[in-house]
Design brief:
Blueprint: H1 4-18, E1 23-28, H2 39-46, E2 51-57, E3 60-65, E4 69-73, E5 79-81, E6 92-98, E7 103-107, E8 114-118, H3 123-127, H4 146-153, H5 160-165, H6 175-185, H7 198-217, E9 256-260, E10 263-267
Antiparallel strand pairs: 1-6, 2-3, 3-4, 4-8, 5-7, 6-7, 9-10
This protein binds a DNA duplex (16 and 16 nucleotides) through residues 1, 32, 59, 73, 75-77, 91, 108-112, 114, 131, 156-158, 162, 165, 167, 174-175, 224-225, 261-264.
DNA sequence: CGCATTCCCTGGGTGC
DNA sequence: TGCACCCAGGGAATGC
């Protein structure tokens, strides 16, 4: 499941491989991927558009063309395929044909991914429109501080896992990395946000950055069907501490799998302690 | 308003 | 082997 490190890995690869190309045509094989316009308008707008840059906001990829901006969210299983002289698979939903004869295919087994096309080249206005408008701070933004988090979750009974997964607070974290961050921070995933003190919030922010930096350095996590592209796999799965693990790397007790914030959650019940005085669970 | 639940999808796993 | 069933989950929509 692509989270920030996986999206960033895809972004970097596509930047090298497709920036500078011009769209000759677009084929939409599954219309529901396109969210804010018709398939016809989508294809017509991109015909003749030159890709000048690829950016990222949270888990969204931003394809910056010279006459439009395309947002792409990979959700669970979306990926881009660069080599494409074979017949279409049933999971290839959008195909970009470039004037140099190459193709970029969007592949999404679960059809959960989304695309939004904006008929502007003004990045600021796109950032201020849905769906990016409500995005929270990037994890590496200097404005992400314990005070910022405290302001968002003061007295909140929501679980800290739910808070970290909330894209309107911090953008880019998903299930895997939240489990890892909470393990490193020795905080229980179900701990209510309001019970966390400033030191805990500071620790969480530090560990968010440590985990994401390491995951980006290793090219993301290859899990189940996720690969960065058809030819690149991430390696961070080899460095996971608790997510999908059977044994705690710290105390060697069994790792528990429970449900928090509607997500399968891995934790060490021994190492990830509840805040003092918490009476939940 | 805040938080929880439902929905969108399909491959993989399970039980019979 | 086949079939019914359930599960995984990010984010929008809906519900309380």
């Amino acid at each position: 499941m692509p989270e920030l490190p996986e999206v960033e890995t895809v972004r970097a690869i596509l930047e090298k491989r497709v920036v500078g190309k011009t769209v000759r045509d677009v084929l939409i094989r599954y219309e529901k991927i396109i969210k804010n316009t018709s398939s016809e308008e989508f294809a017509a707008r991109l015909k003749g558009a030159k890709l000048t840059d690829i950016s990222r906001r949270g888990k969204y990829l931003l394809f910056i063309f010279d006459k439009a901006i395309l947002l792409s969210h990979l959700r669970m299983e979306g990926k881009y395929l660069l080599a494409a002289d074979n017949p279409y698979s049933k999971h290839e939903h959008v195909v970009f044909f470039f004037t140099d004869g190459s193709e970029l295919r969007y592949h999404d087994m679960r059809k959960f991914g989304t695309m939004h096309l904006f008929e502007t080249t003004d990045l600021i206005s796109v950032m201020e429109s849905e769906p990016l408008k409500k995005m929270g701070l990037e994890p590496f933004d200097d404005r992400l501080t314990p005070d910022y988090l405290a302001g968002k979750i003061a007295n909140s009974k929501r679980s800290v896992k739910s808070i970290l997964l909330d894209q309107t607070i911090i953008s880019g974290l998903g299930n895997i990395y939240v489990d890892e961050v909470l393990f490193l921070s020795r905080i229980h995933p179900a701990a209510p946000g309001g019970t966390l003190d400033r030191a805990s919030l500071k620790l969480l922010i530090e560990n968010v950055r440590i985990v994401l930096n390491k995951a980006i350095a290793y090219g993301g996590t290859t899990v189940k069907s996720f690969q960065a592209t058809d030819e690149v796999s991430g390696r961070f799965q080899n460095y996971l501490m608790v997510h999908t693990k059977a044994e705690c790397p710290s105390c060697h007790r069994p790792v528990s799998k429970i449900r928090v914030a509607g997500r399968g959650t891995y934790l060490c019940e021994h190492c990830q302690i509840k805040p003092a005085g918490a009476d939940y669970l």
